[in-house]
Structure formats: structure tokens, C-alpha cells
Amino acid sequence: MLPLVMVLAFLLMPILEIYVIIQVGQVIGGWWTVALLLAESLLGGWIVRREGRRAWNALKETFGRGAMPDRELADAALVLVGGVLLLTPGFVTDLFGFLFVLPFTRPLVRRTLLAYGARRMKAAQARGPLFPPGAGAAGSPFEVFDPFGGRPADARQPRGPVVQGEVLRDDDRPAAP
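Above: the chain sequence. Below: its structure as C-alpha cells.
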């Protein structure tokens, strides 16, 4: 489902951007549209630089305290994604870029994305494990190990009949007195 959404976004977003640019150009004129796009890029670059510096300083301070930088890391990621969106020419991507970068809209976007991620995680947990127990061929690098025994998960079941006995080796000699 997600790959389909991504493909559609990459196909439809340029078409939407061109449509919006043409519509804005018809209303305010072509040169004013270009000037507005350049002004958005310059303003966005300045905001990304300022907010990126703030996010970096907040990350360093949180690491210095020894705390987990969950909010700071999310803010830094949103500033990064917002910066990429602001670098992409167009009004729609600039709108999303400003939502991700501006300090008064970023908390709302962060909470929305975290809630979406939490719902996806719950749905994935409800579906069960990604791989069934014992998945992976014996000896492959993707062999599933028992976390308590360190053995492959399928090694718990004996293969074939079990014969009780004692192993004798030729090199086992009794210790000399």
C-alpha cells in the first residue's frame, strides 16, 4: 500500500505543482509568480537555517544532559524534511515545507505524525510477527535464534530418533598418576 502511495505522490505532485503555478500565474502574472517562488525559497532558506541551528543546539543540550532526545530528534527530522520540501520549486511543497519548519506549526505536525506512526505500529502488532517462528534456513545468515538459548529456533525439535549412549573417543586417555 505504501509503495503505491509513494509512486502516486511522485507522479501526481509535479502535475499538481505545475497546475497551481499556472493558476497563480494567470491571476498575478508570470513574472510575479516567479518572484513569489524566489521569495518563498529565500525566506524558506533563512528559516531552515535558523530552525536547523536551534534544533542542533537542542539536540546537543539534551545529549549533554544524558536525556533521550525524542522531541528534539523529531524536530530536527522535520526541519530537514521541511528544508528539502522548500528547496523543491512549487507552492504546494512550499506550503508543506513551511508547516514542517515553522516553530509554531511544527509541534502540531510532530504530534500528528507520531499519532499516525503509533496507529501503524498497533496495526502491525495486531497482525502478528513479520516472520513465523523458525523462519530462515538453517545455516543462513537470516537464521532465527532463540533469545534464551542462542540456538536456531528449529533446533529445539530433535531430527530423527534419539539414541541414549556415551561417546568414546580414541584420544581420551586416563590421566597418569
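The two ends are 75 Å apart (CA to CA).
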